[in-house]
Amino acid sequence: MATRSSVKTFPLPFTTVDVVIFTVLDDVLRVLLVQRPNAEGEPFPGAWALPGGYVDTAVDATLEDCARRKLLEKTGVGSPYLEQLGSWGGAARDPRGWSATHVYFALIPAQGVVLAKGANAADVAWYAVADVLRAPELAFDHAAILRTAVERLRSKVEYTSLPAFLLAEPFSLPQLQRMYEIVLGRPVDKSGFRTRMLSANFLEEAGVAEGDSYRPAKGYRLIDRSAPVVFPRTFSPRAGDSNT
Amino acid sequence: MATRSSVKTFPLPFTTVDVVIFTVLDDVLRVLLVQRPNAEGEPFPGAWALPGGYVDTAVDATLEDCARRKLLEKTGVGSPYLEQLGSWGGAARDPRGWSATHVYFALIPAQGVVLAKGANAADVAWYAVADVLRAPELAFDHAAILRTAVERLRSKVEYTSLPAFLLAEPFSLPQLQRMYEIVLGRPVDKSGFRTRMLSANFLEEAGVAEGDSYRPAKGYRLIDRSAPVVFPRTFSPRAGDSNT
DNA sequence: ACAATAGTGTCTCTTAGACACTATGCG
DNA sequence: CGCATAGTGTCTAAGAGACACTATTGT
């Protein structure tokens, strides 16, 4: 900042914002992808990519506002769980020049989502995360970004209430447990799960949860939707490797 | 990215990188600050700020390279612990216009640091973190950034080997324990501490540690300096509040 | 030999994990 | 009335915290 402060004659990097939007649909963890336009001069024509784009300095007051806007445009969801994931920047990631992207990651319930088709972003779809990770044909460095996002999600799910943001309220404890199991990819003990959730004091009762179950379950709602709860310990440290 | 891809006639935000560099000096956690120039047109003239500045697209291949460069220029340290903290961007944070900064945070041992004085960044100094947080007169939104960095540091120290990066090798377990206590601001039990460190298997013996102690202590070195170790549990969960 | 620090042993109490059990509503 | 799911109780064992102890070296 010192060296060349007032005189700005050097080339500026492009600034973009991308959003990794997760949901659980049909018992599978999914991520929202958009197909890149086929127009001339466009990088990665026809390839799938994370939703995002240039910051509009005239519209977006902050980076987070920009992320919210993009999420709303693509999904119609206005109150997601949203946190910053990190940023990726360099000379090589976009053929158009030096660029830096600020990446956010969001969790939303599948229901109530209205995907924005047509317009300019040709197509939008929910992809199973496992499939995308297996054959990562994404544009730019989005495969790496997605990988990081999934890692972050999995690791935080071990000790936070994050999966609650994947469900529409009111939800039942069995449903919530299901979310944990889907994201973690392994079963979770029912009894321990319930004690843990209820003693963390972040849920309040709210009627009865939807579901085609034999016995209806109590409904719950988040007391505070603004942030997840951090549990004092991780799930199943019994299996603790000493690495990472 | 879709809407206005090829035609870039709209204003680009400024892209900067800032680095929060921590060390422990004289038994106190400190952060490196630089004084902003007094020249005309400079924002926050004379104020203290985090070291950082514009990305130089001709020199820096990636954001992290840029952070490494700035750290090397200011401290002479070439192999710090470096991780990304997050990014802050918006219309209001810099009077010169819409700007986004990518912030990294670094840990370095105090010894061997050669502060770069003079030149253009008028002055450089280690400030006690506690003092700066008490009277946050920093330029831009750097006070908020520092606060976030300290939070992140403190929280990660609870369950990782991060403080090892604050020491020159070889170091002793008592010295390492001291680092934990200084960062956490509370005493840590010796016995538990040792079991924990040694069973995590990230240290290897390396001679004898420096120190004016009565009884010399065994020296240790990190087996892998590239990343910290994550412990399965936090320190003293006994005191666990249910919040945050 | 003594002081000061390095390093070890032991006890207790919490709590997670495992799993068996009871309760309840639907077909 | 039985069955599938919701929800509870109990046992065990691992580990953390606390603290008392022993070991080693410099002065």
From TrEMBL, chains A, B:
SUPFAM superfamilies: Nudix, Winged helix' DNA-binding domain
Domain of life: Bacteria
PROSITE patterns in alphabetical order: NUDIX
Domain Nudix hydrolase: 12-150
A GO MF term: catalytic activity
Pfam families with a match to the protein in the record: NUDIX, WHD_NrtR
Protein name: Nudix hydrolase domain-containing protein
